[in-house]
Recover the amino acids of this structure.
């Protein structure tokens, strides 16, 4: 479907949820950026599809929400922190650590 | 009944204006009289003003009340009637007055996004609010018509009148809740300033990791286990929790991991002696013990450490004041040889020169030593430190006054391997120390020498000129200056870090320097700044610059600094009063301006004044 030049990439959670988002947005995550780097020749870079085995759909959804939140407030000063439900924050913390965001 | 209220207030006004109590002549009155100021005149004028104000208020109230009466009994008043005209005029006057008031401006600012012709409506609401009876007076309930005493808690009814207690309750229960107060987007000014002081000039969002860590710290009481968090994240969590003073026995459990080799808790004030045992018992592989504010730590904690023969390599403790000298000596004799770094702060009742001697004899592998505010050590301790040949990082801040000679001995002996050197508040050290550093240190990347008024500018410049040491990464020379109240300009031969020393320092280390603190080095001239931050100079790595209390720095120099330091994130300028109007580049936190206008991206920032 997508290739290394496509504008959109697909992120897949371990339970099969797929999130399609602009490449630049997904690349806010250092890990995903390195996965998708065309120079890396990883299969993710070739197909534009990242399967994130460690993340559940719920967490990945929140991660994607953060990507867009980050993109939206890129040039603003004094941005409030994104709201995170407390029950999700530990899992999200692990995800953030893994994704390098 | 309403008329009665008006009458009482008129009566009150009369009584007030008629008050004319004469007291005895005071010394002040006499003095004023001698200066042609009449106390009586002042008082009369005051009385007149009060009377005027009260009368006016009463008139307005009257007009308004009549208006209201009218609205109730004559739904369609004849617009031509002369009486009505005068009332209308009065009301119009009242509205004009309200429109000029501060309260009106404030409310108007709050209702942004609505059309401007709302002014009249707003003024009308404010007028009717003003006419409401004060707490303590009587009014008729708007819904049930019952007579009740107005209190501060009386609710406003649907058409603006007040409600009695019963109706108030019903109104709240049954009716809609008041409009939710709109929270302005962004975080508050206070928080911004707090972030600024922490050095975060934030642009864009914080990382998801940081956001989550903060969130976890906020909800720490609900966390049962951290799971498999990596040590750096644990470290950050510990920092945040310590800052909130939230580390208790319960929270401590979250950090105890048998597999981890290090523990860092920056505030142990709420832990007790058993908790330290718990740390040692549940983390047998511990090599790094970093605990601050460990007031309840006692000998037996160390005894346990010795009994278990724990492999502690890094021991960082702040204020272990209940540990005795005997215990310290035993610890160093038993576990000393494996220690690689030792950092101790704030010990006043133990840890004397003799302990220090034993420490230096046993801990031969020590590479990092930091001793701050240990009250009982002095010159002798310095002599012992001179025997530690493997030191790479040395940081000393003694409470006792020490002689310059032992310090020179330390430099001569340990300098060859030293990579960082921090000597704070050695007031008696003189130029010889600088010469020794110049001669013996060749691998320094961090140098801190502070609070001294004996070093001369000439020797500071000589330290950097022709020094075989590569460029420094971290320099802190704060408070190297002459202190003489009667001669603020300093002696003709400059003392402390002054113009020449500053130029030499930046020539030597400019290419690598990341942190520079020259606060209070007040003899650096404008010309020296101009030279250091001239157009073609660049300090690519400089991130943190503290130039507090340098009166010569003005807007022009500050802009030059911004131009020469592209990586700058923090500029500390407390007491630089010539900084008035600054265009701050993105991502730089300017800390400590007083009433200056700061512009980031052309947007004027609010600041603490």
């Amino acid at each position: 479907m997508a290739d290394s030049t496509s504008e959109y990439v697909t992120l897949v959670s371990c339970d099969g949820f797929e999130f399609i988002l602009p490449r630049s947005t997904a690349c806010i995550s250092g890990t995903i950026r390195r996965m998708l780097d065309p120079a890396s020749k990883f299969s993710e870079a070739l197909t534009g599809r990242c399967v994130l085995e460690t993340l559940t759909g719920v967490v990945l959804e929140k991660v994607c929400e953060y990507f867009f939140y980050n993109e939206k407030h890129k040039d603003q000063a004094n941005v409030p922190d994104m709201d995170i439900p407390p029950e999700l924050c530990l899992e999200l913390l692990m995800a953030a650590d893994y994704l390098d965001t | 009944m309403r008329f009665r209220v008006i009458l009482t207030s008129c009566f009150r006004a009369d009584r007030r204006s008629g008050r004319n109590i004469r007291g005895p002549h005071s010394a002040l009155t006499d003095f004023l009289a001698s200066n042609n100021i009449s106390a009586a005149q002042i008082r009369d004028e005051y009385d007149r003003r009060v009377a005027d104000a009260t009368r006016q208020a009463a008139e307005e109230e009257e007009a308004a009340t009549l208006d209201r009466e009218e609205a109730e009994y004559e739904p369609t008043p004849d617009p031509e009637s002369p009486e009505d005209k005068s009332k209308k005029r009065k009301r119009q006057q009242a509205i004009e007055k309200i429109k000029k008031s501060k309260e009106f401006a404030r409310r108007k600012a709050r209702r942004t996004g609505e059309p401007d012709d709302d002014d009249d409506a707003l003024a009308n609401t404010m007028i009717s609010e003003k006419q409401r009876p004060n707490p303590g007076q009587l009014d008729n309930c708007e819904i049930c018509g019952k007579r009740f005493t107005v209190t501060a808690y009386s609710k406003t009814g649907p058409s603006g009148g007040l409600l009695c207690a019963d109706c108030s309750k019903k109104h709240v229960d049954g009716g809609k809740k008041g409009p939710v107060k709109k929270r302005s987007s962004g975080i508050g000014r206070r928080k911004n300033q707090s972030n600024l002081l922490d050095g975060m000039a934030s642009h864009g969002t914080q990382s998801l990791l940081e956001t989550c860590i903060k969130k976890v710290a906020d909800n720490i009481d609900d966390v049962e286990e951290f799971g498999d968090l990596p040590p750096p994240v644990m470290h950050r969590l510990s920092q945040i929790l310590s800052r909130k003073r939230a580390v208790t026995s319960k929270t401590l459990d979250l950090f105890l991991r048998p597999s981890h080799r290090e523990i860092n808790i920056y505030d142990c004030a709420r832990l007790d002696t058993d908790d330290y045992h718990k740390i040692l018992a549940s983390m047998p592989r511990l090599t790094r013990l970093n605990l601050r504010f460990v007031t309840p730590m006692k000998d037996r904690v160390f005894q346990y450490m010795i009994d278990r023969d724990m492999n502690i390599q890094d021991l960082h403790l702040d204020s272990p004041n209940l540990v005795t000298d005997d215990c310290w000596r035993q610890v160093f004799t038993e576990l000393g040889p494996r220690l690689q770094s030792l950092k101790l702060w704030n010990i006043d009742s133990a840890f004397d020169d003799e302990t220090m001697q034993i420490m230096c004899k046993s801990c031969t592998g020590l590479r990092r030593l930091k001793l701050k505010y240990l009250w009982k050590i002095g010159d002798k301790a310095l002599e012992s430190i001179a025997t530690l040949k493997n030191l790479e990082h040395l940081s000393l801040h003694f409470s006792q006054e020490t002689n310059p000679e032992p310090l020179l001995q330390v430099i001569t002996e340990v300098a060859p391997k030293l990579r960082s050197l921090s000597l704070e508040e050695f007031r008696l050290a003189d130029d010889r120390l600088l010469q020794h550093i110049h001669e013996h240190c060749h691998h320094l990347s961090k140098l801190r020498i502070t609070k001294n008024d004996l070093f001369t500018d000439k020797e500071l410049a000589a330290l950097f000129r022709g020094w075989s040491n590569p460029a420094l990464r971290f320099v802190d020379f704060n408070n190297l200056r002459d202190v003489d109240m009667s001669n603020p300009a300093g002696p003709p031969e400059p003392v402390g870090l002054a113009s020449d020393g500053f130029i030499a320092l930046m020539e030597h280390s400019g290419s690598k320097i990341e942190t520079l603190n020259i606060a209070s080095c007040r003899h650096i001239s404008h010309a020296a700044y101009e030279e250091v931050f001239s157009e073609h100079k660049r300090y690519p790595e400089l991130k943190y610059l503290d130039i507090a209390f340098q009166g010569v720095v003005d807007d022009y120099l500050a802009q030059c600094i911004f131009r020469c330091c592209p990586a700058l994130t923090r500029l500390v300028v407390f007491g630089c009063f010539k900084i008035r109007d600054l265009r701050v580049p993105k991502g730089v936190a300017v800390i400590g301006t007083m009433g200056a206008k700061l512009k980031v991206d052309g947007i004027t920032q609010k600041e603490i004044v």
